[in-house]
């Protein structure tokens, strides 16, 4: 079965966003960390996960390692799904 072109484009765009985020975790970590700290500080105090996010981002090394590991795993999965979708789109019936 051939997947719709819109699905292939949507999946590819999600993969591109994931690759961009992964790039920021690997090569632009300082700016990425500062942006996320500022974003968390500007959240409404009643945001349910604000304290968890603040505690997580305090330890920059652990935050960077977790982001890199999960981002790499996520991107690999998305790339595999993209490859399968493109293959099915090209060679599907």
Architecture overview:
The protein has 93 residues and is mostly helical. The protein has one domain. The protein is 83% helix and 0% strand. It has four helices and no strands. The chain is elongated and about 50 Å long. The model has no long low-confidence stretch (mean pLDDT 92).
Layout of helices and strands, plus pairs?
Elements: H1 5-27, H2 29-41, H3 50-58, H4 60-91
Helix pairs in contact: 1-4, 2-3
Order of helices and strands: HHHH
As a whole number of angstroms, the C-alpha radius of gyration is 17 Å
How many H/I helical runs?
4
The overall pLDDT, averaged over residues, is 92
Q: Strand tally, please?
A: 0
Structural class, judged by helices and strands?
A: mainly alpha
């Amino acid at each position: 079965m051939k997947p719709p072109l819109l699905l292939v484009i949507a999946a590819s765009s999600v993969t591109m966003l994931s690759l961009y985020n992964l790039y920021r975790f690997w090569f632009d970590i300082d700016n990425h960390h500062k942006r996320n700290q500022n974003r968390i500080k500007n959240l409404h105090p009643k945001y349910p996960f604000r304290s968890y996010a603040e505690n997580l981002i305090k330890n920059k090394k652990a935050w960077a390692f977790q982001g890199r590991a999960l981002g790499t795993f996520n991107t690999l999965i998305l790339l595999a799904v993209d490859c399968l979708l493109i293959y099915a789109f090209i060679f599907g019936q």
